[in-house]
Amino acid sequence: MTLFEICTLDQRWPRPFLVLLLLGSSHANAGLDHELGYDKDGLYSQNFQTGLEVSVIATEVAGALWLGNDDPLGHTFWQTVDSSSIAGISSTVLKYAFSRARPYQGDNANQWFQGSCCKSFPSGEVTLQASFVTPFIVDYSRQHPWIWALEILPVWDAYARLKSQAHWQTDVIAGWALGTGVGYWSTTRATPLSVQILPGGLSVGFSKLF
Question: How far is Cα of residue 1 from the mean position of the Cα atoms in its chain?
Answer without folding.
Answer: 30
